[in-house]
Amino acid sequence: MNSFLEHRTRAENYPEIPLGRGPAANLVPYMKGATDLKRPLMVNSETVVRQNFGNEQYAKCATALNILRETVMGPELFDKAFKEYSQRWAFKHPKPADFFRSMEDASAVDLDWFWRGWYYSTDNVDMTVDKVKWFKVKTEKTNLEGKEKNVTTKDLATGNSDKAVNDFSNGPTYITVLPTNDRFYGEFRSRIDDKAIINKLEDKNIYEVTISNKGGLVMPVIIEWTYKDGSKEIDRIPAEIWRLNENKFTKSFAKSKEVVSVSVDPMKETTDVNTDDNVFPRAAQPSKFEELKKKSN
After folding, report:
1. Structural domain containing residue 262
2. Tell me: the pLDDT tens digits for 84-121?
3. How far, in Å, CA of 221 to CA of 89, rounded?
């Protein structure tokens, strides 16, 4: 914890001094290391491998608390809870469990998943964008004479959601939004306005994103959307998205603009150990021959 406080002091009062322990990106080399040489933060110090002592006992804890403040809770809520913890345990001898309970109690945020991952395991963060599907809702016109619905020709897109694609070049797959069946309402008195939802989605681009957790350590998911007009947008999804499945999730997003690329953890906030697979479409990787050619030049 002292390393975290040192990091905050330097960041706020001495910005000209380069930050060491604390920033997520600085811990990535350690997180990439061999798992059999790592130990959880909660073990006794004599069990720690000597070469990892500094990273495990100081840098990892400082980074974990920095991520908790900047990415998970937010500075305002974290500082409020941390101040409450400091006041409760001033001039006493708190244990880690006391810190965990105080932070959750003062913030009203369930952080069990965070303590378990960062303090009781040696997992790392490695999120992968498996696939992104692009959909649009069909626009239909009613033929008043024949009373049948005609789909406009623009709905006959070349995209195919069942076909594996590596970019958005095939265009969107057009889908039909069906009204909710009455049996799903049961005894509820309120109903969803299906027509309003369909009208709302009519001109939207719907992107279905599938992300895998290869490293084992669950974290909030930060998605950056780059649009066709060059603008960008950030969506932050809480770590609870992994609650039903810690290995993979699929989530849909409705966007007004067309997307040209999707990137996870663009600001390197989560210590992701492999950012090459965080982007869709995948960036072209240079061959070994090209790398050797660059070195020779």
Report:
1. 127-280
2. 999 999 999 999 999 999 999 999 999 999 999 999 99
3. 33
